[in-house]
């Protein structure tokens, strides 16, 4: 008996000593520098464990929900045992692709419970107790049930207000962090220069400077001053690089851009975001000059790391490593594909199938050396330590309700939506409408459809949480106003059209608000690829509204279904009519521009979008949004971005060469005048400073914002440059009758070009300055000269 007691006591003592020893291991000592902790942990890991740290697998099957109980799933345990995984992606995601609904998905509190259970399992039930890094989709709100849904990126860019977007990003980070996510996918920094491309809504438009400012704001909002702050998450920049201009608009297709175009236009937004401290970068699906981005050593090592100083980790897009053998055909087998990506500097495999056994095989056969593997693993571990995952792996489940989906966050979502709305046309001051109209007809497929106004990468949300245009109109008008609603038609389906009912309602109304456009709303009728992109099914028995969003590329930009016929029938009633568009890409508005007196563009305005649109319709908010992307007259014009390279475009036989609405365009309920342009240039040995100042006066009878824009023309240069380039902008509130001074400073960084010798420089000579309210509404112009060249 005594012997048994002695043995049991010895075991208990051994386990206790082992526990104390484990707690004092260097990598678990929070007082040591992170580099020391990384090196210590790396030295304790097997090759299998190292490879596993680089696998980021799909996360929504890693928990099980039974009533209010949430626990880790057998799939997680198996993945940990077999793959030694280091990360999960989209664990809390809910949408038709993941088959997670409001019923079987996770509420915010349940989400926190799930991530805590997952981390507890990793820490308590694995050899080294390495926590997982949980990455979540977060481009316009955390893609999870209960999170706040903001306008999509194209709408965010329409605010031309980086300060507001940084505030928004801080809220997204707080909501993601509260439930256990520590890495948010976003911002998307692709230049969108072909609106046929299905993911235009995810972009900040066509201009590298505007995109760079928005991207930097998002990174700052996500990450704070430094990675590891409470309520902050790592940003992942997407998609590196030139993903947004695929040939023919085909999502993920090849692109045709040269090195100078890359350096001058496509890379600068990423450079700004990297230098703002971004912790992660995602490679694009496409190839550039025959080299896939997921195996491009020049992009990932020379540009990203050596030139820009990036020290985070690079992650593949979903299955893009496997795409080297399939889509691109540059790798002979899966191990060769893993080796190509690893050697190029791609650290993390989003899927768990690109690296894993394939990378182990590549290491075994000498295609990848252990030094390269250790380097990639070190980058991942460093971010985990920096985030505090080893020291603070759990979240406070009791605090979730105070941090996710709050009233304050909804107020901010409404403000972002307000500032994103672009007034395209207001003939004879038709807007704002009177709140005391006797009868208003609200008509159209997007007038009262909650998911059609939320955009892609949105989780299911309770209906009462989303405010549609119909909700907004009813909340805005007087109690005596009758508001009639008729859908009229669908976005695409032509079998359920009832234009007669819409016309009947319109003839009885004093004013018509018709809400048309598009939809990125994923539904359970649509099939999806392994990457999550939607699949076009020409033989589908039911037709969803979805005509935009990942995978839904277009060959035209026309309004689909019977929408134009509905609009024409409503116009024929002779009643005052306002068109509101809710959509993810610029659409053909030629007929509307010619015949409809007032047009508002709201993009996908998020959960508070209906209230924000009503604020503008009835004058509670004076719109000042500006287009971040040009609106073409025809697909035959494409590309039609304002900052195309010289020479200037000439007209077509059938139409003008200019877009219908230009980049930077947007109207207001008041008027502004510009005056007193002042330019001062100070040249120094290594740089110069060009100070520009001018006055803007609100000469209308309403207070409002003005978005003043500064463009530059490099009149003579050794290489071809754009016809004009945005270099500065500012959105300012100006009271009626008041004057505000705008001041912009330029340095050599703003005028640089990629020279014939493949070096950055500013060449001496003459530069034209253009100041105005849009790229085609220039109010002031002047020029200045530099007397010497500058190098960068």
From TrEMBL:
The keyword Lipid biosynthesis does not apply. InterPro entries: Cellulose_Degrad_GH3, Fn3-like, GH, Glyco_hydro_3_AS, Glyco_hydro_3_C, Glyco_hydro_3_C_sf, Glyco_hydro_3_N, Glyco_hydro_3_N_sf. SUPFAM superfamilies: (Trans)glycosidases, Beta-D-glucan exohydrolase, C-terminal domain. One of its GO terms (biological process) is glucan catabolic process. It comes from the Bacteria. Residues 706-775 form the Fibronectin type III-like domain. Pfam families: Fn3-like (PF14310), Glyco_hydro_3 (PF00933), Glyco_hydro_3_C (PF01915). SMART domains: Fn3_like. One of its GO terms (molecular function) is beta-glucosidase activity. Keywords: Glycosidase, Hydrolase. Belongs to the glycosyl hydrolase 3 family. This is Beta-glucosidase. It comes from Sphingobacterium olei. The lineage of its organism: Bacteria, Pseudomonadati, Bacteroidota, Sphingobacteriia, Sphingobacteriales.
